[in-house]
Amino acid sequence: MKNLVILGAGTAGTMMANHLQHHLKQPDWHISIIDEKEEHHYQPGYLFLPFDIYAPEDIIKTIEEFIPKDVQLIKNKISRILPAENKIQLGDGSELCYDILIIATGAKIAPEETEGMKGTEWQKSVFDFYSYEGSLALRNKLRTWEGGKLVIHITEMPIKCPVAPLEFAFLADSFFKHKHMRDKVEITYVTPLSGAFTKPKATEALEHLLHEKGITIESDFAIEMVDNEKKEIIDYGGKAIPFDLLVTVPTNKGDELMERSGMGDDLNYVPTNKATLQSKDYKNIFVLGDASNIPASKAGSVAHFEAEILTDNILLYIKGEPLKEEFDGHANCFVETGNGKALLIDFNYTHEPVEGTFPFPGIGPLRLLKESRMNHMGKLAFRWIYWNVLLKGTHIPFVSATMSESGKHYA
Fold first, then answer.
1. Residue 399: exposed, middle, or buried by beta-carbon count in 10 A (0-12, 13-18, 19+)?
2. CATH 3.50.50.60 intervals, the chain
3. What gap in Å lies between CA 241 and CA 90, rounded to an integer?
4. What are the distances in angstroms from CA 50 to CA 133, 152, 333?
5. Distance from CA of residue 292 to its chain's centroid?
6. How open is the CA angle 239-221-297, to the nearest 5 degrees?
7. Calpha distance 75→264 (Å, rounded)
8. Whole-angstrom distance, CA of residue 182 vs CA of residue 148
9. How far is CA 70 from CA 29, 35, 67, 116, 120, in A?
């Protein structure tokens, strides 16, 4: 019997377990998935928790609920990968051999990477919403906050879900309007990018919305430190932006396991072929989701598209056949813009977000790069789709893993 081991039972790892259990059957193959956590979190829900749109029970379920019965769930810490020996060292001292390894260990915030960020004001006036603990603490703060200078800040790229900080800014605008205190809140959006987003066409649309909502944008801001006493963020050029409430997206890094195993780059992301999702260093190791260093968005929809293509490539690898170089960086994201509306963007490595219709050319019903109530309903419906379709490895009808150009208007 051969062993396929998946590291991480988050979004990407769980989807791969569900995809592969249909194709790799005992007694030929044994599939196991390793994770020390008990809970599976719907991470897009962290955006909504601070505004009391979602409650904790909406975004947390047990990991076991989504692991198929033919896949062994091993609840243990992963101490180290020994790729030259095809082994995994576990926290209890035991070892697990593999024939194929899938790394889906995700990414996490690293506020300690920025001087002063995790200082005396951490979770007092400095918060994140990229962790469950941070999102919950921010919810409690916003329930009683009386206003002032709200600064929404990105430390550096890449980050999980690049549009989430913008969504937070838009939802904050809507939140304070509904509390009849928008005039008491000055919102500033601070980014290391030269504009609101990574793609020019989307940047134009999103910056228009920022201006429309009275949100100031500060671009090209490379943070050096957080001054907890003065309540300022300071960049390397000496520019200081004061805050009463700082909502920051800290540096995102891959799991420390990659550093312990000598397999990651400077941010602990695993060097990965962007088209095949195979490790650049080890032929029997594959990487997907937030754990890889490919230049695609770190988002759940991307992991979903990756999982479909990676399943095919693992089956090809087992047969000894050439891998498909098919993954094109496809990302499909709803962008909450507040007041019950949202945008939808669809892009890949080579095509930026553009206007058009989705998923059906000329019909929709969703509009690309246009605010609508329908897009907002799609965003909210995604939570049900996540729990009931994506995690279970079910293909979403009419949505291809690679980006379709039909129904899109290119300049």
1. middle
2. 2-42+61-108+253-319, 109-252
3. 45
4. 11, 13, 20
5. 12
6. 165
7. 23
8. 10
9. 10, 17, 8, 47, 48
Q: What is the pLDDT of residues 242-259, one digit of tens each?
A: 999 999 999 999 999 999
Helices (H), 33-77: 56-59
Pairing of strands 245-249, 126-127: parallel
Superfamily of domain 2-42+61-108+253-319: FAD/NAD(P)-binding domain (3.50.50.60)
* E strand residue ranges, 301-411: 331-338, 341-347, 355-360, 364-368, 408-409
Give this prediction's pTM.
Answer: 0.95
pLDDT in tens, 29-74: 999 999 999 999 999 999 999 999 999 999 999 999 999 999 999 9
Distance CA 8, CA 110 (A): 19
Is residue 279 within 8 A of residue 137, CB to CB? The reply is no
73: which 2 tokens?
């769930």
At residue 199, the pLDDT reads: 66
pLDDT at 395: 86
Q: What is the DSSP string of 202-247?
A: HHHHHHHHHHHTT-EEE-S--EEEEETTTTEEEETT--EEE-SEEE
Question: From CA 171, how far away is CA 289, in angstroms rounded?
Answer: 26
CA-based nearest residue to 389, from 130, 14, 64, 48: 14
8/73 Cα distance (integer angstroms): 10
DSSP 197: S
Q: Tell me which architecture the domain covering 109-252 has in CATH.
A: 3-Layer(bba) Sandwich (3.50)
Question: Which DSSP state fits 271?
Answer: P
- Number of residues in the chain: 411
DSSP 92-144: TS-EEE-SEEEE---EEE-GGGSBTTTSTTBTTTEE-SSSHHHHHHHHHHHTT
